[in-house]
Specification:
292 residues; mainly alpha; ABC transporter involved in vitamin B12 uptake, BtuC; two-stranded antiparallel ribbon; 2 strands; 73% helix; globular
C-alpha cells in the first residue's frame, strides 16, 4: 500500500507541474490586468500543435520543438493586448470592465479553437515522446517524458519567479500588479507591461501544451478542461497570488492522483471543483488571498 501511495504521489507531482505552469500564467494575467482569460487553454493547444509541426511535419529534434513551441506562443501572445484588450479599454469609459473582458476572451477562445479546427481538422494527433526510456524505481516506472515535465516545469517556474523578483521588467510587473496608477506615475509604461505579462503567461501555456502533447493527443479543445480546472486552482490559491497558484496546483494534482485509490477514476475531475466550492464557502479569499 505504501508503494502504491508513493507511486501516485509521483504521478501527482508530474501532473502538478503541468497544472502549475498553466495556472500560474492565468493567475499572472488576473493579478496584473484584473482580467479572467477564458482563452488561455487555446494557447496551450497551439503549443501542442507547434510541437507537432516541428517534430512530425518538419522532422526537427525534440529539443528544438520544445523551444520553438513556447516562443511561437509567446510571440502570438504579444499581439493580444494591443489588438484586443487595449482597444476595448479605450472604449469602456466608466463601465465595469470585468464582464466585457470576460465576453471578449470567450470570443477569442471560440475564434482560436475554430481556427485550429479549420486548419488542422478535428483529428487527434499523436506526438512522439521528446525523451525515450525512463527511470525504474522497482515499485514503479517513470517515463522519460514525465521526468522531462518535472524538470522543465520546475526550471521554467523557478526562472519566472526569479524574473519577477530581480529583473527590472519583472519588478515593473509586480509594481503594476500592486498599484497601476502609482506605477504609471513613476514612468512605468502600463501598455508595455500588460503586453509582456500576457505574452509570458501565453508562453508558459504553450510550453505546457508542448510537454503534455506526447502524453495526450493534440486536438483543438485539448486545453478546455484544463482551463476550467485552472480557475479552481486560482480560486483555491487566492485570486492573483502566484505562490498560491503554485501550491494549489500541487494540492489539487496530489488529491486527484491519490483519489484513484479510493474512488473510481471517472470522479477524478470532480476533485478540483469540489475543492473550489468548499473553499468559496469556507474561505472565499483562498489559501493565500487577503481578506477584503
Amino acid at each position: 500500500m505504501f508503494e502504491e501511495i508513493l507511486e501516485f504521489l509521483i504521478l501527482g507531482l508530474v501532473l502538478g507541474g503541468i497544472y502549475a505552469m498553466f495556472a500560474v500564467g492565468l493567475t499572472l494575467i488576473f493579478g496584473v490586468l484584473d482580467i479572467v482569460n477564458v482563452a488561455h487553454g487555446e494557447f496551450l493547444a497551439i503549443g501542442g500543435y507547434a510541437l507537432y509541426i516541428a517534430m512530425v511535419v518538419l522532422g526537427l529534434p525534440a529539443a528544438v520543438g520544445l523551444v520553438v513551441a513556447p516562443v511561437a506562443v509567446f510571440v502570438l501572445g504579444l499581439a493580444v493586448y494591443p489588438l484586443l484588450f487595449a482597444p476595448l479599454q479605450k472604449r469602456l469609459g466608466r463601465r465595469a470592465p470585468g464582464p466585457l473582458f470576460l465576453v471578449l476572451t470567450l470570443g477569442l477562445s471560440a475564434l482560436l479553437q475554430n481556427s485550429l479546427l479549420a486548419i488542422a481538422g478535428g483529428e487527434f494527433l499523436s506526438v512522439p515522446p521528446a525523451v525515450k526510456g525512463g527511470l525504474d524505481l522497482s515499485f514503479t516506472y517513470i517515463s522519460g517524458q514525465r521526468l522531462l515535465i518535472l524538470a522543465v516545469a520546475g526550471a521554467s517556474l523557478g526562472l519566472l519567479f526569479l524574473f519577477l523578483r530581480f529583473h527590472r521588467q519583472g519588478m515593473a510587473i509586480r509594481a503594476v500588479a500592486q498599484n497601476p496608477a502609482a506605477a504609471q506615475s513613476v514612468g512605468i509604461p502600463l501598455g508595455r507591461i500588460f503586453t509582456l505579462t500576457i505574452a509570458l503567461a501565453c508562453g508558459l501555456a504553450g510550453l505546457a501544451g508542448a510537454l503534455i502533447a506526447p502524453l495526450f493527443s493534440v486536438y483543438p479543445a485539448v486545453g478546455f478542461t484544463l482551463t476550467i480546472k485552472a480557475f479552481a486552482i486560482t480560486i483555491l490559491g487566492g485570486m492573483g497570488n502566484l505562490l498560491g497558484a503554485l501550491v494549489a496546483s500541487l494540492i489539487i494534482a496530489t488529491l486527484e492522483a491519490l483519489s484513484v485509490i479510493v474512488i473510481p477514476s471517472e470522479w477524478q475531475n470532480a476533485i478540483a471543483f469540489g475543492t473550489m466550492i468548499l473553499v468559496l464557502l469556507v474561505r472565499p479569499q483562498g489559501l493565500f488571498g487577503k481578506k477584503p
